[in-house]
Amino acid sequence: MFGLIGHSSSFAQAQEKARDLGLEEMAEADLLSWCSAPPQLLETFEVTSKTGKTIQGTYIDSCFVPEMLSRFKTATRKVQNAMELAQKNGINVTALGGFTSIIFENYDLSKFQQIRNTTLEWERFTTGNTHTAWVICQQVETNAPALGIDLSKAKVAVVGATGDIGSAVCRWLAQKTQVGELLLVARQQQRLLDLQTSLGGGRILSLEEALPEADVVVWVASLPQTLTIDHSTLRKPCLMIDGGYPKNLDAKVAGDGVHVLKGGIVEFWQDIGWQMMEVAEMENPKRQLFACFAEAMLLEFEGIHTNFSWGRNNISLANMELIGNASLRHGFRAIALDSARSRSDNSGLELAAA
Ligand code: NDP
Known about the structure:
This protein has helices spanning 11-20, 24-28, 31-35, 72-88, 100-106, 129-146, 164-177, 189-199, 207-210, 249-253, 291-302, 317-330, 338-347; strands at 2-6, 40-48, 54-61, 93-96, 114-115, 118-119, 125-126, 155-159, 181-185, 203-204, 216-219, 238-242, 258-262, 265-268, 288-290, 332-334. It is α/β, with parallel strands linked by helices. Helices cover 37% and strands 19% of the residues. Strand 12, helix 10 (249-253) and strand 13 form a beta-alpha-beta unit. The chain folds into 2 domains: 2-126, no CATH class; 130-265 and 335-347, Rossmann fold. Residues 101-102, 128-129, 132, 159-166, 185-188, 191, 207, 220-223, 243-245, 264, 290-292, 312 line the site of NADPH dihydro-nicotinamide-adenine-dinucleotide phosphate.
């Protein structure tokens, strides 16, 4: 069995979900009461791969909401309690979705393995970041040419370049895709310099400097809602892959030559009998899901019971290829712009093919 640990995208949405589930008391409770609410195992379901193999999955809501991010103890407790629940249910491999993997890493929760009488076994968990990074690279490779962008000459800005996903995306785009030039954007300069050295190239720029130069922008940082982008300074065409969480770029910049695609989202080849993606506001919630969640499914399909994606900046190109091949084999494809989809449909190509 595989597991997915997730959360609602806001407190209001969590209350609405509680109401839908008939949990009236929770729906009426204030944020403080939610801070002490335990994780909930909300549903179990079956998933059948294109190969014919069927596995069972479970969705655990951590009862965390982004409004709790500033409460260090609450946020960490929510993640640890959800992991404990997953392990107690004997789940082989569980993906830490949404903010839960970031809380785990940023608060260094690997130091706290003992949760009450449970010793957390790390090999039962994955951040899902290897598959997310691979999917985002496929989205660049598939959609940029559909907009007439020649990747071998293109400037590709990676916002969040030094992050776990961002650094893997940079390595792939530099070595596999061989894009024209990488523009590296993040705040901490030393980490940028270290990345530049390890890549053997790439130009370090501020966000304001990078955006007007970029043919493609990969966003893999959780950016403040207050971020403003001056549409007139962007190149046209420009492909923006919005890989951060929450996804909020579309309303800010899409249109008039700027094409925004939800990053790190995959579509399964057939409907899955679950409710959980309704709250994630997917266009097709029975088939679309976060690539990090899909990684847990893929590891279960493949019988790889290990913490495949773990720690920071450990993602190898070999593992991206491994999980990418599994992704295609079991029936996932990266979501694409309509223009790329129709090109692919016309040519009979698989959208997410490497
Ligand atoms: P990390 O914390 O490892 O990396 C975040 C990166 O963003 C760092 O390079 C950080 O560098 C940079 N950053 C943060 N704030 C800013 C800012 N204001 N301006 C510029 N750069 C900034 O995160 P991950 O790589 O694990 O995740 C990245 C994003 O992907 C997150 O939003 C996450 O929620 C999302 N995600 C999506 C998934 C999916 O399935 N679609 C799955 C998993 C994650 P610095 O601090 O130096 O600025």
